[in-house]
Each structure stands twice: as structure tokens, then as C-alpha cells.
Amino acid sequence: MIVAAFLLIVALMVGVIHWYLWRRLVRDTTRPGPWRRAGTVLIVVLALLAPTTVIAGRTLPMAQQRVLAWPGYLWLSVMFLAFSILLVLELPRLALRPWVRGARRDVAEPAPALVGADQSTATPQPGTVEPATPDLPDPSRRLLLARSAAIVAGLTAVGTTAVGTHTALSAPRVARQQISLRKLPRSMDGFRIAVVSDIHLGPLLGRGHTQRIVDIINRLDADLVTVVGDLVDGTVAELGSAAQPLAGLRSRRGSFFVTGNHEYFSGFQEWIPEVESFGLTVLRNQRVEIDGLDLAGVNDVTGGNYGDGPDYERALSGRDPAKPVVLMAHQPIQVTDAQKHGVDLQLSGHTHGGQIFPFSYLVRLQQPVISGYARFGDTQLYVTRGAGFWGPPVRVGAPPDVTLIELRAE
């Protein structure tokens, strides 16, 4: 039911957006004829391609998903960006409306003709002026304005998508963050934690993507590696080999994993033992003691729909309050519960840093932090932008990253 409702909402949104794009990019820029008909057909095809691509990601085998993924997801990016740009351009369109209508004209009103007078020789009486005729849109000016807006929106959307695709497919950057923990023992000052999230193996990201991330993390020479959910978008049978390079992760105190929402969409029952087979410890509402701190992990909130939700009491109760606790939780919004349970630091992902500006503003409606560091009372939160992408292979204003956190004793 949840998936069906999600797909219905997506279909409605896509339909409205394509109707608007048709008005601005086709109807307003063409005269009735073959070009308008061709543009209409193209918009209809693209409108069907968008939801088909999303549905294929839920239903078709991975090999068939790849056929639709590149054109479908790239168009979703162009569609969203063009829609956003055209909405912004509505303001100058309104401002230029007087120019489109052209100049007003005052026309002299002829004097009433005398009965029986020669109408061909009648002359208007001086001093009588006909009220100004209503302004009529100038077709050539209206067409020029519409085509100009369409060109600006189209070129900007396509160019931004091209740059964003290059960014998304590039190697993740290394972000570095120092975080002080009041309870951290002096002996652990400088303890380093590598944080990666949202790798999103799927139809467009495979084994090479995983190996590149593993190589980046290993070069950081971290004490601890944390993989904070959303590793996969597919089954173990389809993506197990793509995830296998995780077995090569190196750190002094081990590598740990918690579920993200996409693990539940992809068969978490199979993925948990698969991830453990790579040598990672999966923390399912559990904690472990590492030197002078506790490392805890809770399931993603989506797990509640699958009978496998987060349990903070199980993960955090009965611990030594003198030790700091670092919590792995996929979604930043989980910091609310973390704060209630006295967590010192929460590590999260999920947001992708917004992935495509200005879509980040919608993410802010769901999550308290989009990326980076924040503080909620005594609980600190760090949100990585993630190393992969979901949907369009595009990142605008939110490059992928792997974070190295250095803990400092206060």
C-alpha cells in the first residue's frame, strides 16, 4: 500500500509538471501545425517515460532496469530543473506583459451624421476622441518572449544536468570534521572514524563504485569504519557481487553497518547476513564497547513497517553513563530520540545533501539537517552527503563524500 501510494503521488506530480512544460515549451512557442503536434507527442512520450522508469526500479530485473535508467533518470533531472527555472521565469513574464500587448492607440470618434447627409463626405467634429481601444497581444512579441524563456530554461536544465552527472559519477570527496566529546578519555584523543552512507548500488552503480569507495576509506587509515545505511537498491542475487569489495575495508577497530530505508525495500533479511559475510558487524539495535566509548546502532525508522524498527532502549539502556556513546542512525530525524537517550554523537546520512538544488529545500521539510555538523542540546549530529545517488545520476550543489571524523577529548 505504501509503495502504491508513493507511485500514485509520483504519477500525479509528473503529469502536472509535464502539462506545464507542454504549455510553456510547446504550445506557447509554436503555432498550430506539425511542429506543435510533434512537440506534443514528445512531451507525452517523456511523461510516460518518467513513471515507467520509477516503476521499473521496483519491478523489473536489474538488467532490464539499466535499459530505462539512463534516459529515464536523466530526463527526470532535466524535467525537474526546467520546471523550476520556468517557474522562476514567470516573474519576468508578468513584468513584460505590457510590452507584449504593445502601445495603446487613441482614435478620433466621427461626429454623428446628419440624416440624409452624404456619408462619404462626412468629417469628424473637432474635440471628440474615441476612448482608447483595448490593448491586444502582439503575436510576434508573445512568441519571442515564450521562445526566449524556453531556450533559457532548456539550455540551463540540460547544462546543469550534464555538470551534475559528472559530479555524481566522480570519486567522492573526503570531508574532515573534528568533534569534541566531553566524556572521551584522553587516551582516545584523535580517534578517527570514517563515515560513509548512501552508496546505492543498483542499475547505474556497481562493483567499481564500491571498490573506489573502499580504496578511499582505506587510504584514510581510520580507527573505525561506519557504513550508515542505504547500501543497495536491489536483491542479493542481483547486487551481492557488486557489494563484495566491502570485504576489503581496513581499520584498527572494525567496520560496522546499520540499515537504511532502502535495505528494507531490497530484502533486508537477506542483506544483513550478506553484509556480515563481508566482515562488517551489523548493529541491529545493539551496541559494542570500543576502547573508552560505546558504539551503538539502531535500525532505520522504515523498518517499523517491516516489523524491524529502531529500539533505542535495547541499544542504549544499561550502559555506563561515564562513557561517551556514538550512535549510528541512518536518518538525521532520529536525533530526536537520540537526544532523549543521552547520545553524545549521532552519525547519519540519508539526505544526499539534497542531491539536486533546489530540491534540497524539500528535504529540509523532512529532516532537521541536510549535511554537516549540528548540535541539539548535549547531542551532536553529523550528516554525510553520501557516496552515491538515488534516481537521477545527478548531483547539483551536493557533491558525494566520505567523511573522516576526528574525536577530540575536551
Automatic annotation (TrEMBL):
Bilayer-crossing regions: 6-26, 38-60, 72-91
Cofactor or coenzyme needed: a divalent metal cation
Gene Ontology biological process terms from the UniProt entry: lipid A biosynthetic process
Molecular function (Gene Ontology), one example: metal ion binding
Domain Calcineurin-like phosphoesterase residue range list: 191-353
GO CC annotations, alphabetized: membrane
Annotated region (Disordered), positions in chain: 113-138
Keywords for this protein: Hydrolase, Membrane, Metal-binding, Transmembrane, Transmembrane helix
The keyword Phosphoprotein belongs to this UniProt entry's keyword annotation: no
InterPro entries named in the record: Calcineurin-like_PHP (IPR004843), Metallo-depent_PP-like (IPR029052), Metallophosphoesterase_sf (IPR051158)
Family: Belongs to the metallophosphoesterase superfamily.
Protein name: Membrane protein
Organism expressing this protein natively: Planosporangium flavigriseum
Classification of source organism: Bacteria, Bacillati, Actinomycetota, Actinomycetes, Micromonosporales
